[in-house]
Design goal:
homodimer; 223 residues; alpha/beta; eight-stranded mixed beta sheet; two-stranded antiparallel sheet; globular
C-alpha cells in the first residue's frame, strides 16, 4: 500500500483553530511532528499557529487556508464541527486522495447545557466522511480526549483513544500517532462501523463533565 | 419519596438465568444481599439459584417464576435479551409499581461475530422500559460490566458503572448498590436520555473483546 516506507509525515489539522484541533496540533508539535493548522480564514490559521508556536518553542507549526493545509498534509485531521464537515470535505476532496484522513468529529447538539448525539444518516460522521472520500483512508480517533486538557502543554492527558477504520495499515499508522502523545494509549476499535459508538460517547462524557465539573475521558480496561 | 427509610431490600433478577443477571445476582449475594432469581421457567430459576448457592455458601438466594420474583423484589433488575424486555415488562408491570427497576438491557445484534447496537424507537431499552412502566423508577446501569467476569466468585471486576435515571433518589440507591460490589465504582450518568450511549457502548466493547480476546470494561477517568 501507498503508506509503506513513507518517511515524511506532515500533519494537517483542518478546523485547527477550534479547541480539539488546536489541542491535538499542539501535542503533536510538542512530540516533534511537523504541523500545519488549517482554517477557512488563512489569517486566523496563521494566528493560531503563532500562538501555538509560543507554547511549543522550536516546534514546526504553520497555518494556512484549509485547502492549502489539506494539500500540504500527508495525514489530514478533520476537526470541524459536524455541520461543517461535508462542505469542507467536498471543498478539499481532491487534495485528500490516497491520504490518511483522521476524523475527530463528534456530531453533537447541546440543549439547556445537556449534550446529545445527533443522528447521522450514514451512521456516523466518520462513515459519512468515508462516503464523501472513497479514495481516502478514513480513520476515526481522538473523539473522547478533552480539548481543554490537550491545550495545556505538558498537562498529563491520561486516556485511551479508540481507533476505528476499515483500512488496516492507516489504522495502525494512527495508532502509532496516538502513542506519540505522552500517556495516551490507542485501542483498536475495529471497523469504521464502530466509530458511531465512540462519537456518541462524547455526549455522555460532556454530560458527566457537567455533573462532576471535570474533564472526563475513558479508559478501556482489561485489554 | 417512598424509598426513604426502607430497610429491607430484596433484589430480584428477572432473566436471572442469563449470564449478566446470574453474574450480578452472585455478586450481590456474596455482598450479603438477599437475592431472588426470576425466569420464565420457575424450575430453571430454582436450578440457577441452587448453582449460585454453591458458589456463595451462606448467601440467601432463591429462584422463582419471573412474576413471583418481581413481586418479591424491592429492587428489580431486568436482565433479559432486548427482544424479551417488552413482553416481560407488560407481564409483570403490576408488581413493579413504585419500585426501582434497574435496566441492564443492551439492545444488540451480532452478525458474523461483530456486534452492533440495534435502533430502539424510544431511544434506548431503558427509555422504552420507563415508557412501559410510568409508575416505576427506571435506572439504567451495569451494561458494560463483563458477565463472564462477574460469574467467577471473587474475581476482581475493576470497572465503572455509569448509572442513568430521571429519578434522583432511585439513581443514588443504585449507585449505592454498585458500591457493594468490590472494585466497581458508580459514575453518575445524569438522566435516562444518556442510557442510550451506555447501552450502545456494549457493542463497541464486544468488538474490542473479539480483537483482543479479552473481557473489556470501561473506566471514566478525570472524575
Amino acid at each position: 500500500m501507498l503508506l509503506s516506507g513513507k518517511r515524511h509525515n506532515m500533519l494537517a489539522f483542518l478546523g485547527g483553530t477550534g479547541p480539539e484541533g488546536k489541542g491535538l496540533a499542539l501535542r503533536f508539535a510538542l512530540a516533534g511532528e511537523e504541523v500545519v493548522i488549517g482554517s477557512r480564514d488563512g489569517n486566523r490559521a496563521r494566528e493560531t499557529a503563532e500562538a501555538l508556536q509560543e507554547l511549543a518553542p522550536g516546534a514546526a507549526i504553520s497555518g494556512d487556508e484549509n485547502s492549502v493545509a489539506a494539500q500540504r498534509g500527508d495525514t489530514v485531521f478533520i476537526a470541524v464541527p459536524y455541520v461543517g464537515q461535508k462542505p469542507l470535505l467536498e471543498q478539499v476532496e481532491e487534495h485528500l486522495t490516497a491520504k490518511v484522513v483522521v476524523d475527530v468529529v463528534a456530531p453533537l447538539a447541546v440543549t439547556k447545557g445537556r449534550a446529545r448525539a445527533v443522528t447521522v444518516e450514514d451512521g456516523s460522521a466518520a462513515m459519512e466522511a468515508q462516503q464523501i472520500l472513497p479514495d481516502s483512508y478514513v480513520v476515526a480517533a481522538f473523539h473522547n480526549i478533552s480539548a481543554a486538557e490537550l491545550v495545556i502543554p505538558h498537562k498529563v492527558v491520561d486516556g485511551d483513544v479508540v481507533v476505528c477504520s476499515d483500512h488496516q495499515e492507516p489504522k495502525e499508522l494512527v495508532m502509532g500517532l496516538v502513542r506519540k502523545i505522552k500517556d495516551l494509549r490507542p485501542v483498536d476499535g475495529d471497523g469504521l462501523e464502530n466509530a458511531k459508538y465512540v462519537e456518541q460517547l462524547t455526549a455522555l462524557l460532556l454530560n458527566i463533565n457537567r455533573i462532576y465539573k471535570a474533564h472526563s475521558m475513558i479508559k478501556i480496561v482489561g485489554v
